[in-house]
Amino acid sequence: MPESFAGGLDAQTRTRMADLLNANLADAIALTLSVKEAHWNLKGPGFIGVHELLDKVADRLRESADLMAERAVILGGLARGTVEAAARASRVEPYPTDIVAIEQHLEALRDRFVAVGANLREAIDEAGEAGDEDTADILTEVSRQVDKDAWFIGANLRPSEVGR
């Protein structure tokens, strides 16, 4: 492992946390690309509002990915952020590339955001149990943003489509 800049954590914990961060980095990259896929292809009533929202969501996901990648490096690991690494490691369900209706995109994104949020909560617990509260804090920050963006996306669905 490269040099660590985080004192008070043993090498095994640092390696485990870097791996944990990279797993969630892969999810964030995959989710970002799913958001952009929807952003480029959606059509229907409310287009411009959702189109612009998804650009902002993608920006926030990129910021979250940056936080996790930098923490992995601080711990003495390497950030695994290539599209190839993300494709291999991501737990995000592949995004449909044959849909255009805004509602279909919103449902697909909402479901993926909720799943990523669940993965993040598991990672928060694991980091806390390992004694790396800084990594847990970063993952908590990312989790809060993913949940908030899930809400922003889901709030655009018609009431009959919410809560599925």
Strand content: under 5%
| Amount of helix | over 70%
Tell me the major beta sheet: none
Secondary structural class: mainly alpha
CATH architecture: Up-down Bundle
Count of all domains:
1
- At the fourth level of CATH, the homologous superfamily is Ferritin, core subunit, four-helix bundle
Q: Stretches where pLDDT falls below 50 for ≥5 residues? A: none
| Count of individual helical segments | 5
User: What does the overall shape look like?
Assistant: elongated
Helix-strand topology string: HHHHH
Identify the quaternary structure here.
Answer: single chain
Mean pLDDT: 95
Distance linking N and C termini: 44 Å
Quantity of strands, as a count: 0
Q: Radius of gyration from the CA trace?
A: 17 Å
CATH topology: Ferritin
Please report the first level of CATH classification, the CATH class: Mainly Alpha
Tell me what you see in this structure:
This is DNA starvation/stationary phase protection protein Dps. InterPro entries: DPS_DNA-bd (IPR002177), DPS_DNA-bd_CS (IPR023188), Ferritin-like (IPR012347), Ferritin-like_SF (IPR009078), Ferritin_DPS_dom (IPR008331). Belongs to the Dps family. Pfam families: Ferritin. GO terms for molecular function: ferric iron binding; oxidoreductase activity, acting on metal ions. The longest helix is centred in the N-terminal third of the chain and has 31 residues. The model has no long low-confidence stretch (mean pLDDT 95). Helix 1 packs antiparallel against helix 2. The protein starts with 10 loop residues before the first helix and ends in a 10-residue tail after the last helix. It is built from five helices and no strands. With 164 residues, it is mostly helical. The protein has one domain: Ferritin (Up-down Bundle), CATH 1.20.1260. 71% of the residues lie in helices and 0% in strands.
